[in-house]
């Protein structure tokens, strides 16, 4: 069977069932994934994120996740066809890691916007902001809590604002693990060194402070007022 986290996060991409048997039967019909185009130019997020970082991050790092995911899925299909159980098990880590990397980055690009655009205006997320104020007391308190989570990530990972049945929560995920279960990813921040090091060196705090200037609050509002299925339908349409 496919790794649980990747299967849960991608079930809306391909119609896979949570059943291991159905997943194995349908693996042959999984589409080849491709690198989504950015909704802005590489230099559009400057000075918060440099054009050099954006180009490398998107065209090299994200492309590598896509390439490795497609290769792993192709090998997995062969392993299923030949009833190679050991081969299927051996490929699960690669599918989870690269599939998660593809999902996370695809969501990440969409939840960023040029600082001078209307999409980056917090006023465009009135419903979400009201819930943030209700949960944390104020936007500044929320920003402080989210920043603390981001800077507390050890090694590589992501920080996320998510919605579940109880309301809003701040979570972190390790490496390229995607947001799974019933949680709706509102927006995420990549805390891998490749997301900031060429520009900020070891100054993670400066990177985090500046990324708040390019959060796409319009997209965040749409994700908050929608469902998890809505988020992944929009994501699927861009891939």
From TrEMBL:
Homotetramer. Keywords: Manganese, Metal-binding, Mitochondrion, Oxidoreductase, Transit peptide. Pfam families: Sod_Fe_C (PF02777), Sod_Fe_N (PF00081). Residues 32-113 form the Manganese/iron superoxide dismutase N-terminal domain. Mn(2+) binds at residues 57, 105, 190, 194. It comes from the Eukaryota. This is Superoxide dismutase. Belongs to the iron/manganese superoxide dismutase family. GO terms for molecular function: manganese ion binding; superoxide dismutase activity. It is found in: Mitochondrion matrix. Its cofactor is Mn(2+). It is an enzyme of class 1 (oxidoreductase). One of its GO terms (cellular component) is mitochondrial matrix. It catalyses: 2 superoxide + 2 H(+) = H2O2 + O2.
């Amino acid at each position: 069977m496919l790794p649980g986290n990747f299967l849960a996060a991608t079930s809306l991409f391909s119609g896979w069932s949570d059943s291991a048997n159905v997943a194995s039967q349908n693996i042959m019909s999984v589409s080849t994934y491709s690198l989504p185009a950015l909704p802005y130019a590489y230099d559009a997020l400057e000075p918060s994120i440099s054009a050099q970082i954006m180009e490398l991050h998107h065209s090299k790092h994200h492309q590598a996740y896509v390439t490795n995911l497609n290769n792993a899925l192709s090998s997995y299909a062969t392993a299923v066809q030949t009833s190679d159980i050991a081969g299927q098990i051996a490929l699960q880590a690669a599918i989870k890691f690269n599939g998660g990397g593809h999902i996370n980055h695809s969501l990440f690009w969409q939840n960023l916007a040029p600082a001078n655009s209307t999409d980056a205006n917090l006023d465009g997320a009135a419903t979400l902001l009201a819930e943030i104020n209700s949960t944390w007391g104020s936007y500044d308190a929320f920003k402080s809590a989210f920043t603390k989570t981001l800077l507390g990530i050890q090694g590589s990972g992501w920080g996320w604002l998510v919605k579940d049945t109880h309301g809003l929560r701040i979570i972190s995920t390790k490496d390229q693990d995607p947001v799974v279960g019933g949680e709706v990813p509102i927006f995420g921040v990549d805390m891998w060194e490749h997301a900031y090091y060429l520009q900020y060196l070891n100054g993670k705090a400066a990177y985090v402070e500046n990324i708040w200037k390019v959060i796409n609050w319009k997209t965040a509002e749409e994700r908050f007022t929608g469902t998890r299925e809505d988020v992944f339908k929009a994501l699927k349409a861009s891939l």
